[in-house]
Design a protein that fits this description.
Layout: H1 6-9, H2 22-25, H3 30-37, E1 43-46, H4 53-64, E2 67-72, H5 78-86, E3 97-102, H6 109-119, E4 124-130, H7 134-137, H8 140-143, E5 147-150, H9 156-174, E6 178-179, H10 182-191, H11 196-208, E7 211-213, E8 216-218, H12 221-228, H13 240-254, H14 258-270, H15 274-289, H16 296-310, H17 316-327, H18 334-347, H19 406-423
Parallel strand pairs: 1-4, 1-5, 2-3, 3-4, 6-8
Antiparallel strand pairs: 7-8
Helix pairs in contact: 9-10, 9-11, 10-12, 11-12, 13-14, 13-15, 14-17, 15-16, 15-17, 16-17
Amino acid sequence: MGYRPLADEIRPQSLEDVAGQEHILGRDGLLRRLIEKGDIPNLVFYGPSGTGKTTVAGIIARQSGRALRQINATTASLSDIKEVIADVGTMLAPNGVLLYLDEIQYFNKKQQQALLEVIERGDVTLIASTTENPYFYIYNALLSRCTIFEFKQLTPAEVRPAVDRGITLMSERLGTEAVVSDEIRDFISSACGGDVRKALNAVELLLNTAVEKDGKLQVTMADAETVAQRSAVRYDRDGDAHYDLLSALQKSIRGSDPDAACHYLARLLEAGDLISACRRLMVIACEDVGLAWPQIIPIVKACVDAADMLGLPEARIPLGDAAVLMATAPKSNTAHVALDDAMADVRGGKTGDVPRHLQNIHADSAGMEREQGYLYPHDYPDDWVEQQYLPDELTGRTYYHYGANKAEQAARAYWEAVKKRRENGEKV
């Protein structure tokens, strides 16, 4: 018999042995009840890798008596699916086929549409899995015929039993007792990022390379740290994790939580995504701190420029400064909200002609020069004079509202004083 990876050898054969997923596989979980009932609909399993999607599909196939056919969409074609259908009703699949299509997001629209005919047959049940949001990557016609279940990232405590079983099995396979401390077992369970497969791959490598001493295999923390290096980082620059981290970074800074801001920035930088981190920090400076502290924009720009010049790992220093500074700074979104409201009016057709006194008089053709009537503010006290700026159709429309922060309230007080002096006829 050829080599069999530990993760495959230790794969659970029953729902009781599946790690985590209590929300769908617990005693009252809906997916568990569907499996136990035996009437399996077409399904979509959505969640991170190594969380049990393939394992559960295999359990469903065994309990339903159907032949399991597994295809990976990254390399498969429609001909592969036709071959699966050809087995239906033969000795290879007398009770029908359970087609497990892994990474369905890599199937294009035409390929996914071809699956419609397959899943509408009573003798073929589709279980599609994806690590991406199915509502973005699976076409509606196919999605409407499937029931979606989300598999969640496992906690270290949920991974630990699989690590213990893996160590026991590897000791039996090698015929030598392995000495693995609880500290190392916990570290492997935590460093795998909630991916059981990664944890078991680490166990297999560690024990296969462990040094034998006094008749026992000695596993060291140093080796565990080397094997698990960066394993906890779940990241795909084109996937949901990328946008989730950027969103979490911005919301943490907006929520004035410097600890969470550092955490999510660290995850971006550990994944090597310096560009996205820099861009998002600039957005936050303008959108979330904004007019409450306008000087934050050139400050963050300087941090971003320094990070770009330094590169990783030193880039983390100025970016950390920017993240903590903004998280602890006063916040205001008044300016960009004002602009968004104005853009909504423009998109809705609320525009009107530019008032004559604001038009470019140099654009008038020969013989069409007219008195413009523009009042030059710098010719007046306080560099301000009352005149209409909005088009006639929008006169009186207010987009900007002063924020409650010190900077905007100071600006408000200044202009209120200027206008009050003008109303009273005072001169400066």
